[in-house]
Task: structure prediction
Amino acid sequence: MSAAKRVQQWAAFARTWHIFDCKWQDPYDSANIIKKYLMGLHKPIYHPMNDCGDVVVCINSKEIALRGDEWRKRAYFHHTGYPGGASWTLAWELHNKDPTLIIKKAVYRSMKGNLQRRHTMERLFIYPGQEVPQDVMQNVTNQIRQLRLVPTRLDQIPEEVAKTYPKVMDYPEDYVLK
Amino acid sequence: MAGLVRAGFSLTRNAIFSTSVRSIATTAQLNLKAIREQTEGSTLVVEGVTVPSPRTELLIRAENVPVPAEDTALSTSEKPPCYMCALGLDVKHTDVLILSQFVRSDGCMLPRRITGLCRRQQKKIGKMVSMAQKAGLMINLTPEKCKKDPTKRREYKKFNTYFDERTIFMRKIPKPEDRFKR
Ligand SMILES: [Zn+2]
Result:
């Protein structure tokens, strides 16, 4: 085997570590992307019996964004097994308790329920803020592109830019400025 | 008698203060006005000063934008009802630099007689303004006692929320032939 072929062989079967910034991302949309990298679906050598999945590190999971009124409408169900042990937790209550749990459950539910799923989930690291342990961060070699643009707040835009921005609406002539 | 006097008083007050009456005055050209308050000793002077609009030079209108040759046939066949329809911009609720032009300094949407939009655009822009306010993207344009920082809001309001603009016109407008369908 030539040296180039050997490198190709290593690159094909090595686990790549990806980083994903969850800031202002929908967890249920981004779970479908994360799932592909976790299971190795993006590789041409993918096979269900082939252990070729990568590792994904999610940061800023505290700042995920849900759509519309989903923070108060989406409920997470849990049953203790005892009679009357059912409970429904709203998404904002769950996020208050553990800011990593919504994205974890979203990725878990996006995958098919088989014996492999628990082992695939072991390769997902979620951190609520920007701080990632050094032994995790040193392996990261790739970044997954975000699905949605992080919106810019009006007070973060400098005032000259906002003033010289092209205007669409002009006031009528007898309008009293407020 | 007292009621008559009050009615007469309110009539004169309307004649003096209401803008609609003022606008048909024949003497002076009315311009954009800013109300200024000054205290000179013990007297408070309130005056309306005409101000040139800061927006006129930056204004963009569809008739001033050069149009490619093949588009002119389309645009001349049907005249759009207002300037936003004519521009044909795809405005999202995150475009705060555009949405903040339709808003008072307290973040309240301006009425249609001032914006000059058609009904559909007024509704759409108004909904997108409230979306941007709920997402906390225009926190410098809010009432004084508003909780400006979204992370300090209560319960579900303190987390990031985004909106889908396709949900603005959800209600299906029935066509005339749908009348007999059940
Ligand atoms: Zn219009």
